[in-house]
């Protein structure tokens, strides 16, 4: 009973505050996943080869997406903390906040340039990373086509994503939601027209899917960045602030944000390694995993919302100087994670069969997808718990270095070796291959409880030249 109260008996207003932040974020995530799912369904009508090609090409794009999340969430840790300080030291806090955004934008554009160059010059090498040498040449060819039309997408995707995270850090969650709603219809119309050649547009197939996504990303970036740079008055960031002198804050930004980037980079590399394992298990496994991945994302939208709300609430609470309150709230978020994980598992079990039937899959691939769905319904309970803690509470507390080490250890020492052994040495079923590939989620959830209880996750953050 004492443990139950610790996890679920929070002070008045806690759940309301979390839900006000989490629900719009979750709704935005659901819209994004809906777009991805519609893309997969549309591309899936072209055949399993095309579906596999787009799925694997997007594995590379997802590396950039995860790295941008690292940049944005790293900046969010600082922005949330500075926003919480604004009543005590308004001038110092707001200057530091704008400098953090400035550094984030510069790094995002630089990272986009690197990924755009790689996609432009070596798309064949990128695709070959995910497909067994000498096999599935049709998958590689289609994937190259998709990447070639995605070169400049990186710039718009990165800016809209990181700037959205900044807006959320100061409590502005509605605008990104409305922008995502608009992007949903832009993407839907563009994909429908360009993939299949409707409304007088050319029938472009996979190239049309990539181009439709680009059009939606351009729309998102122009609205989000236009609002921040020209309209928003809470942060007051303007174009001129892109030229701020940031050397005094750079060290603190690196200390807090770069471990987040590295941690998410490790996650991206790990996901790439997992994708490479999956790609070598055959086209049917890739297609089945693509279907189940979409389902998993749908089941975890609320988890993502609470995760980001956890980082924001924790950062602002610590910025106000309330360490004991932040510790209590940490247990509340842990309870959130357990509850949402169980709900997500039930959701996957309920919707798995209708979703599998909505795709144009062979019977063998469909049976494989069912096994993966069962595995995901188990893993998601642990994934929900550790995600809300690692990407939310512990990150919001500034514990980014330890999180970087934990991500590295559990993923590369445990999960990937077990997955390789299960898939290639032991020849286990798809269910057990997936469990092994995601075993880090289980061990990380246990570690998070220990770390939270220790209280060592709460770190001091500076505004620049002086402590804050």
End-to-end distance: 38 Å
Q: Give the DSSP E fraction (strand runs of 2 or more residues).
A: under 5%
Approximate helicity band: over 70%
Supply the helix-strand structural class.
mainly alpha
- List low-pLDDT spans: none
What's the quaternary structure here?
single chain
Could you explain how this protein is built, in words?
The chain is mainly alpha-helical. It has one domain (2-454). Helix content is 81%, strand content 0%. The chain has helices at 2-8, 14-44, 48-85, 90-121, 123-128, 137-148, 153-169, 174-196, 206-230, 247-279, 283-299, 301-319, 323-357, 363-396, 400-425, 430-437, 439-454. Helix 3 (48-85) packs antiparallel against helix 10 (247-279). The longest helix has 38 residues, at 48-85. The two termini are 38 Å apart. The model has no long low-confidence stretch (mean pLDDT 85).
Keyword list:
single chain; 468 residues; mainly alpha; 81% helix; globular
Compose a concise summary of this entry.
This protein has 468 residues and is an all-alpha fold. 81% of the residues lie in helices and 0% in strands. It has one domain.
Please write out the topology.
Blueprint: H1 2-8, H2 14-44, H3 48-85, H4 90-121, H5 123-128, H6 137-148, H7 153-169, H8 174-196, H9 206-230, H10 247-279, H11 283-299, H12 301-319, H13 323-357, H14 363-396, H15 400-425, H16 430-437, H17 439-454
């Amino acid at each position: 009973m004492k443990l139950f109260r610790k996890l679920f008996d929070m002070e008045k207003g806690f759940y309301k505050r979390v839900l006000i932040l989490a629900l719009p974020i979750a709704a935005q995530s659901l819209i994004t996943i809906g777009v991805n799912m519609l893309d997969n369904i549309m591309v899936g009508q072209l055949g399993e080869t095309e579906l596999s090609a787009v799925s694997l090409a997007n594995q590379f794009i997802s590396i950039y997406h995860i790295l941008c999340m690292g940049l944005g969430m790293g900046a969010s840790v600082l922005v949330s903390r500075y926003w919480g300080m604004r009543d005590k030291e308004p001038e110092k806090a707001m200057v530091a906040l704008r400098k953090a955004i400035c550094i984030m934008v510069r790094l995002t554009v630089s990272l986009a340039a690197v990924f755009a160059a790689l996609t432009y010059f070596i798309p064949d090498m990128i695709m070959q990373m995910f497909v067994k040498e000498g096999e599935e040449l049709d998958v590689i060819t289609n994937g190259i086509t998709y990447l070639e039309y995605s070169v400049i997408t990186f710039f718009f995707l990165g800016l809209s994503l990181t700037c959205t995270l900044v807006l959320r850090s100061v409590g502005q969650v509605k605008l990104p939601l409305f922008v995502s709603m608009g992007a949903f219809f832009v993407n839907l119309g563009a994909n429908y027209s360009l993939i299949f050649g409707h409304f007088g547009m050319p029938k472009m197939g996979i190239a049309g899917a990539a181009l439709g996504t680009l059009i939606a990303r351009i729309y998102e970036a122009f609205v989000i960045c236009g609002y921040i740079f020209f309209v928003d008055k809470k942060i007051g960031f303007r174009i001129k602030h892109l030229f701020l002198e940031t050397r005094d804050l750079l060290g603190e930004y690196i200390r807090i944000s770069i471990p987040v980037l590295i941690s998410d980079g490790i996650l991206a590399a790990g996901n790439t390694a997992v994708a490479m394992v999956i790609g070598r298990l055959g086209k049917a496994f890739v297609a089945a995993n693509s279907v189940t991945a979409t389902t998993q994302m749908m089941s975890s939208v609320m988890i993502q919302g609470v995760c980001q709300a956890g980082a924001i609430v924790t950062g602002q609470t610590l910025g106000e100087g309330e360490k004991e309150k932040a510790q209590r709230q940490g247990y509340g978020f842990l309870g959130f994670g357990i509850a949402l994980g169980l709900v997500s598992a039930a959701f996957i079990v309920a919707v798995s069969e209708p979703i599998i039937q909505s795709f144009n899959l062979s019977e063998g691939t469909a049976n494989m997808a069912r096994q993966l769905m069962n595995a995901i319904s188990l893993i998601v309970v642990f994934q929900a718990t550790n995600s809300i803690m690692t990407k939310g509470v512990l990150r919001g507390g500034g514990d980014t270095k330890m999180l970087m080490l934990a991500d590295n250890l559990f993923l590369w020492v445990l999960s990937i070796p077990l997955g390789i052994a299960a898939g290639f040495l032991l020849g286990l079923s798809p269910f057990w291959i997936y469990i092994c590939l995601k075993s880090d989620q289980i061990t990380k959830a246990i570690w998070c409880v220990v770390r939270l209880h220790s209280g060592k996750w709460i770190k001091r953050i500076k505004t620049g030249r002086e402590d804050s």
